[in-house]
Write a structure and sequence with these properties.
about 110 residues, Jelly Rolls, five-stranded antiparallel β-sheet, four-stranded antiparallel β-sheet, 9 strands, about 60% strand
Amino acid sequence: MAQDFERGIAKDIGTTASTLWTANSDDAVVGIMISNTTASQILVDVYITNTSVDYYLVQSAPIPSGSALQLLDGGAKVVMQNGDVLKIESDTATSADAWVSVIDSVSV
């Protein structure tokens, strides 16, 4: 069966959470890339909100100036279910861009 690949993006992420993806079914996150767009190191949080509770994938992860953080690697996946929301925020205003790759509507 063919898979439905989707993506979520956020630009100029700052100190307020930005939504990268909201699951509308059983979805598998297969990649998260976050780039620092400032001249100084930043700290980022990436988490999934499920029924008003935040579950952190990474908290206060440092990203040096001119660098990026690849959050999932080595074939790792994160499963999200309907209504789960993947969010990111930084400790610095307008300091990061992010891209998430998702397999939407995972089925067997």
